[in-house]
Specification:
340 residues; mainly alpha; two-stranded antiparallel ribbon; 72% helix; globular; disordered N terminus
Length: 340
C-alpha cells in the first residue's frame, strides 16, 4: 500500500510528527543542535563584522588548539553524564597531570613514556572512583568534589606552588601536521573513538540504559557496576591525556592550570544536550557545546568586552540552554502521554 492508499481515518490518527517523517530521535537532535549552531553562526558573523580577523584560518586554528584540552575532557564527561554519573575532579587532575608531566620531562623520561604513565595513572584513578561509586554507593558529586581538593593539593605540593618550566620534551603538542595542530588532531581522534564507542557499540547502548534507569538496566542483565567502572576509567584516562596536552601547550606544569575547568567541562557537555539526570547526550552535542564556549570567550575578546563578563555570558547561555531542554522534555512527555 502506498502513502496515497492510506485510509483517511488512519492518516487522521497518525501524529503530525510521524506524518512529517521525523523520528523522535531526530526531533531531539534538532532541538539540541539547532540553537547551538545558530549561536555559533551568529557569534561568528557579528564578531567578523567588527573584526574580520576573527574567522581567519590562523585564528580558527588557534581557537581549536586552545580548546583541545577542554574538548578531550568533554568527551569523557559526556560519557559519564549519559551513564548518569559525574566527575568534578577533572580540573584538578589536569593540573596534577601537567605537574607530573613537567617533572618527568625534566628528569629525562621520553615523551612516549610520560604520556603512557599519565594515561595509566588517570585510568587507575578513574577505576578507583568507579569502584567506590559502584560498590560503596557514594554519590559521585561528593566523591569527586573531595577528589578535586585532594588532587589540587597534591599538584601544589609537588610543584611547590609554582609552575614547573618545561622548555622541551612535549613540543609535539604545539607541532603541526599539514597545517593542523597536533593537539587538534588528538582531539579529533578522541571525538571519533568516543562517538564510535557511545553510539555504535553494545557498551554504548548499555551506558544509555544505565543512565535512563539503572534498576531496570540491572534487572535486564546489564552489568551496571562494570559499566560505571569503565566510564570512570575512560574519563580518568582522558583527564590524564588532557593534563599532558595542557602542559605541552603552555610549556610548563602549572599546579593551578586546571582551576575552574571542571565547571566549564560540565557546562559544555550540558550545552550539548547531555542531561545531569542521565540517559541523554551525544558526542556531537558535546563538541558543539565546546565550540559555543570557545566562540563566546573568543568573541568577547575580539569585541573588547572585559574578561569579567565572560562567566556572566556563559552562565546566561547555559541557563537558557537548560531551560529550553527542560521545556522540550516536558512537551515530549506530555505528547507521549496523549498518544499513549
Amino acid at each position: 500500500m502506498t502513502t496515497t492508499d492510506v485510509p483517511p481515518e488512519v492518516a487522521a490518527a497518525t501524529p503530525p510528527q510521524q506524518r512529517r517523517g521525523l523520528s523522535p530521535l531526530m526531533r531531539d537532535h534538532l532541538r539540541v543542535y539547532a540553537p547551538l549552531v545558530l549561536i555559533v553562526v551568529a557569534l561568528g558573523v557579528v564578531t567578523t563584522v567588527y573584526n574580520p580577523a576573527f574567522l581567519s584560518g590562523a585564528n580558527v586554528g588557534r581557537l581549536l588548539a586552545a580548546n583541545a584540552v577542554l574538548g578531550v575532557l568533554v568527551v569523557g564527561q559526556t560519557l559519564l553524564l549519559v551513564g548518569g554519573q559525574l566527575d568534578l575532579s577533572v580540573g584538578s587532575l589536569v593540573s596534577l597531570g601537567g605537574v607530573v608531566t613537567a617533572s618527568f620531562v625534566l628528569h629525562g623520561l621520553p615523551p612516549v613514556v610520560v604520556v603512557l604513565v599519565c594515561l595509566v595513572a588517570g585510568a587507575l584513578i578513574g577505576l578507583c572512583w568507579g569502584l567506590i561509586v559502584a560498590y560503596l554507593k557514594v554519590p559521585p558529586f561528593i566523591l569527586t568534589l573531595g577528589g578535586l581538593a585532594v588532587f589540587a593539593s597534591l599538584a601544589l605540593t609537588l610543584a611547590a606552588s609554582t609552575p614547573i618550566p618545561m622548555p622541551s620534551g612535549m613540543t609535539w603538542v604545539r607541532a603541526e601536521v599539514l597545517g593542523v595542530r597536533v593537539a587538534v588532531i588528538v582531539w579529533a581522534l578522541v571525538i571519533v573513538l568516543g562517538a564510535l564507542l557511545l553510539h555504535f557499540t553494545r557498551f554504548g547502548r548499555n551506558v544509555y540504559a544505565v543512565g535512563a534507569n539503572e534498576e531496570a538496566a540491572f534487572l535486564a542483565g546489564v552489568p551496571t557496576a562494570r559499566i560505571k567502572m569503565a566510564l570512570y576509567s575512560i574519563n580518568g584516562m582522558l583527564a590524564g591525556l588532557a593534563g599532558v596536552m595542557f602542559a605541552g601547550r603552555v610549556g610548563a606544569g602549572d599546579p593551578r592550570g586546571g582551576v575552574g575547568l571542571e565547571l566549564t567541562v560540565v557546562a559544555a557537555a550540558v550545552l550539548g544536550g547531555a542531561s545531569l539526570a542521565g540517559g541523554r547526550g551525544s558526542i556531537v552535542g558535546g563538541v558543539l557545546g565546546v565550540l559555543v564556549v570557545a566562540m563566546v570567550t573568543d568573541s568577547l575578546s575580539f569585541l573588547d568586552v572585559p574578561d569579567t563578563y565572560n562567566q556572566l555570558v556563559l552562565g546566561a547561555i547555559l541557563i537558557g540552554a537548560v531551560a529550553v531542554t527542560a521545556t522540550s522534555e516536558i512537551r515530549r512527555i506530555r505528547a507521549a502521554r496523549r498518544t499513549g
